[in-house]
Every structure is written in C-alpha cells, then in structure tokens.
Design a protein that fits this description.
mainly alpha
C-alpha cells in the first residue's frame, strides 16, 4: 500500500462538484480521482520537458513544423504512423 498524507486543498465549488461526479462515475474515491489527476499532470509535464530537450538538439533548419511536431507527439504516444521529414529538410540534407 502506498504511503499517503492527508492534506487540505481548496478548489472551486463547480470543480469540486464535477470531480465528485467524475470520481463516482469511475467508481473511485474523490481522493483517488484527485491523486490520479495530479499524477497524470505530472507525467504530462515530464513529457513536455522531454519534448523540449529533444527539440533543443535540432539545428534551426531541422526544427519540425507545428504539423510535424503533432505527428511526432502522436508517434511517440503510439497514436500514429512515423512522421516523414518535410521536403525542406530532405533538400537541406542533400545539400549539406
């Protein structure tokens, strides 16, 4: 069993009502629902940081377009096919 700590958190009434309803719909306690939401958000931050680190390794002419970035994220999340390089990058590599 995971070690837990009791805390006090303030949130808006509407958010609390929606969270309670969602937790009930999913068959979990409000505490478990909030814990999972926090964990999911922390994992999202880790993915965004990894994305920033990867993009920092690209040369200026290699930075993916917004569409290519979305395709990369989908691929990394196993939601889509491997993205192809834009024609711009293919041409630059041939010249380089």
């Amino acid at each position: 069993m995971a070690v837990t700590q009791k805390i006090s958190v303030a949130m808006g009434r509407a958010e609390l009502r929606l969270a309670k309803t969602a937790a009930e719909d999913e068959g979990v306690s409000l505490s478990a629902y909030v814990t999972r939401a926090v964990r999911d958000r922390l994992e999202e931050r880790e993915r965004l940081e990894a994305r920033r680190e990867i993009l920092a390794t690209f040369l200026p002419h290699e930075i993916p377009t917004a569409d290519e970035q979305r395709a990369l994220v989908a691929f990394w999340n196993r939601e889509g096919p491997a993205p192809s390089l834009s024609q711009r990058r293919k041409n630059q590599r041939r010249r380089g």
